[in-house]
Amino acid sequence: MVITLTSGSNIQSQWKIGNTTVLSKVCTGSVREINISTTFDVPQVYNMTVIVWNSVSDPKHITSFVEVVRLVEGFDIVTNVQNNTSFGTDHGPVVYQITLDSLDRLPMGKLNFELFYNDIIVLKMELDNEHDLVSTGVMASYQSMTEGDYNVEAKISSTVDSQSFSFNLSIWNNITFPSIKSVAGINMEIFVTNYNLNTQRYQYRIVYGNGNEEHSDPDILITGRESFWSYNYTIKGTYSITIFVANPIYSYSFVKTIVIQNPVPDLSIWPNMTSYPNYFPLLENGAVFIINMTKNDLPPTSMTCTFVFETGGVGVNIDAPITFTTSLNTSHTYTTGGDKDVQVNCSNSVSSQLLTTRVFMLSKLEGFKITGHNRLYLDNSTSVDQSIAFTYTAGEFITASAAIITDTLIPLKTTLDGHSGSVVVSANELKSYPYGTYKIAIELSSQSGETQQRGVALFYEEQLAGFQVFQNDSLHLVQHDVEFDVVFASGSSPEVELLFLDTNSMVEFENGMVRHMQFDYTFTDPYIYNVISISRNAINSLVQTDLEVEVVHSVAGFLVEMQSSLINSYSTMTFIVKLDVSTRIPMGIVNLYVDFDDGTSTNMTVNDKFTQMLDSNGYQFDHFYSMQGYKNVAMRFQAEFTKQEINVTARIWDNINNVMITSDWAAEVNEVIPFNFENALRSGFEYSITFGDGTEVNNVPNVLYEEYNEPTKYHSYNSPGVYKVVFKASNP
């Protein structure tokens, strides 16, 4: 144990565990470090106090913990490798079981396990569960994927001691085998290497299936990566090859079937270079190539010939056997003319032969197009010629022609200069033909017989003039057809477009000479439409903007109520008119006609009252009734095309609840007694008076429909008594 000082001389020191002094030491001279050694009988952690002093300094104390452990011993290591010698890479990791013979060997301090392969550390772990070391052991594992021989050292160590185990271990890779050709040629060497065996040390045995075999020395492992066998067959046929390869851990055996067949023979191709350039096939016909065998001593097995043209390879299979007179014909179509190199590779599974030749192809007609628009407009009022230009980019010996296609062909003047040409068209060409659309066909032909045609649309029309659009009425209903009349002073094949709103329009077309068109359109929404009318044909177009179309709803949705359906005569009846929803508007000019059923009527325009009618109070108007009666009031809401009729019943009857008769109620026998009506209103009512003596008096006829005019009633009694007079008054 060591303590250090920054300064001091002639130091005395005392070392204590608890209160027990275990050692004292005196150091003379200048002292910077004090070393002592001692032994402990019991492994444990001690609380050590060191006291130092000299003649000029007070004692100084230092306290420290001293851990005392046992030596590292009593361990054993067992692996899952048989005899601790050989192990395969696909057997998983090598497992090391670390055990301790007794817990009495503890404590040893903090323990670590380290694993070295050829002095290179590959694993390090802490053995922190000491009880598992005794009971089940602690497992450590490592898998090496590299084949070879290894000096393995397993080391268990603490900070003060260690215990090691060493043994030799051979790691072996599993065996894979390279692929072998399934097909080979007669007298062609079959050459196989061991590059892909995956193991570097092995033994082998090969049986060729024809009575021959070879094998390695049974007592020696072959090492290195050299080619280890080759063989050739001299007879065509199918052979079964058996191959066995092994190392101390793994073995590999397989049977391979190999077909030995004839190789590609000597071949020739026509056209060959000796006939070039006498062969000029046309592009549209393609070039023909013929392959022949030059000798027939060894016909090929399953030969394939691949032709490589300028546009890529084309494979053609030839089934064996091929006799000397047998030839292979194939053709190819090129897209451009000129010299063309051709390669032909004929091969089967065992050999190949490359043939080359050359042909000259005549150019194909290409790039034929109309320059500019593919349409032409002819106005019958002009005699100015118009032309159509065209070009083509490739072609030889080209001629051009053009015609207007009708029931007969009308030939047109055509010129061609180099790769450009033109066609001249005059209105005079079609003077005797109806207006309309025709096709101009322009055709290019080559000397090879190839033709290409392009079309141009020819619009032969009369100019539009005097364009006007009329509507059949000034007002129209939604969901009803609106009829439009279109007139022209002149024109042919017009397309007429009416634009109502940004998203509403209609288009009508009529072919040939046209002076009048008629068509319908149904509007779904009420509106005053400012219609833009456009007429056009291939020659010109005209616009009209002064057409206004007013579209309204049908008259509907009116409701009629009365503030009170029963009033007295000579009173005012209030009628309330309502409109159910605002979407009924517009309806055009709406007039209200009212027959009050009293000999009077009225009419009014109600458009300015729609706002009131939509309100909950409605639009109100009054009528004064004088005479009593049931009045069937007829109301008609009338617009230009539609109407709505509503009938309501007004009841004009006086309230007679307070009407009564009065009298003196006492008289002498045979005295004339007057009976007077009180509280009567202005119109008549029906009544009866019974005087109690069997006498009754009633109203005159039609009293209900006249003003009240009842005189006093008189009655006399011819015998004394008390009489009950009953008065009854009524109206409907």
Overview of the structural elements:
This protein is an all-beta fold and 732 residues long. It is 2% helix and 52% strand. The protein contains 2 helices and 60 strands. The strands form 16 sheets. Strands 15, 17, 18, 19, 21 and 22 form a 6-stranded mixed β-sheet that branches. Strands 8-14-13-10-11 form a 5-stranded mixed β-sheet, with no helix packed on it. It has a 5-stranded mixed β-sheet with strand order 31-38-37-33-34, with no helix packed on it. Strand 57 and strand 58 (696-698) form a beta hairpin. It is flat, with a radius of gyration of 64 Å. The model has no long low-confidence stretch (mean pLDDT 86).
Please give the number of β-strands.
Answer: 60
Structural class per helix/strand content? mainly beta
Uncertain segments of ≥5 residues (pLDDT<50)?
none
CA(first)-CA(last) distance: 139 Å
Q: Give the CA-based shape.
A: flat
**Radius of gyration over all CA atoms, rounded:** 64 Å
Largest sheet: 6 strands, mixed
- Mean of the pLDDT scores? 86
**Name given to the CATH architecture of the largest domain:** Sandwich
Protein name: PKD domain-containing protein
InterPro entries: Ig-like_fold, PKD_dom, PKD_dom_sf
GO biological process, one term: calcium ion transport
GO cellular component, one term: plasma membrane
